[in-house]
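pasting input
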Amino acid sequence: MSGAAVVRVLRNPRYAILAFAVSLFVFLFATWLPNLALIQSVLGTPGVTPVSKLAFLASLAGSIATNFTLFSAAVTVAIALLFGIHIALFVYLVRRRVQSVRLGSSAAGGLMGLMSGIFGIGCAACGSVVLTGMLTAAGASGALALMPFKGEEFGIIGITLLLVAISMTAKRITDPQTCRID
Amino acid sequence: MPDEPATPQIPPIQQAPKPENALAIPLAIIIAGALIAGAVIYNPNSDASQRKGADNPNVAAEDSSAKLENLAPITSADHIRGNPDAPVKIVEYSDTECPFCKRFHPTMQQVMDEYGDSGKVAWVYRHFPLDQLHKKARKEAEATECAAELGGNDGFWKYLDRLMEITPANDGLDPAELPNIAAYVGLDVQQFNTCLANGTYAQKVEAHVQNAIATGGNGTPWSIVVGPNGTKYPLSGAQPYQSVKQLIELALTEK
């Protein structure tokens, strides 16, 4: 039933494009995150043409093959895809909504899934990019080394939360629009 | 007068039930936004964050571009592949047990294949063993220095290439392999073992580690691309060859 709702929404080209655009953004964010200072430096260098800047940004997407383990690359792609699908479903639902439709938990689930996924972004050698920065700032950089999968656990949690959020949102879509008596 | 009909009781107006988890959306948006902002602000390669192990507490207060200026000068004591006077130098801080350094090593070899003969790019190798993740890496770093003592610059690079080739990474290399690699590249194994046992180069390795941290490195491979006019570009991680090539081309255009 959830699958039917997902297919129904994504069959609409507008929502398919929305899902793709959001997925692409999340994916690029994940590959650019370890090198924000470099990107800032390249984009700010005078004399570099816009085409060269774009080409450089695009080339960094290739780091999914070089700077990620197979597991973390799979998690990153999965989170990007799932979040894009979730956003498309959510926008579809919001556009159809009536006041009584409850959106809070599915929206929260999707955002929590993305948040957890962001924690999971990074490589096994350097650990979670986000956690490394935040935990180091708090003076606890060794915490990542203690985790069995060096922070990649958060990616699994993120995928799980996103699947739950998609399921909840899809159910809302397929629920008949009624005023419920509580 | 007939009794007036009873006034129908009109139930009080009920408030529409509030959607469940009314605060969930704004709270989730705020938390997500804070996390994403935190990822950008506290990104090790963006602005200031405390670096555990940095000797100079003032280093932590510098922003990322200022930290790059802490790069120790490239001297004849460094291990340089290619033309030491090349206009572009790539200083790589590496951990021999890091799987991403292992992946990045062939990328750098490809860089040198393309730019080394023309003298445009030099590859400078420095040590950054991550003790918390790879306990064997520090001793392996010292081993490469012993190879340099016995075999010169060529001996160092042959030893490093072979080590990177055979290590399974993630502390998978048997320490017994270190003298075997020395033998493989034609070094005196007895002298190599003596050098390694003495810990002669422990201090040099530690100095590289401190400099890596001072320049903003918090993972490996951590590279700094230095342009002809001294401009420094931070390159974190095992980036694909195309990215490194474009960065080199950008640096080469500098006057």
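fyi Residues 122-128, 135-141 of chain A have pLDDT under 50 and may be disordered.
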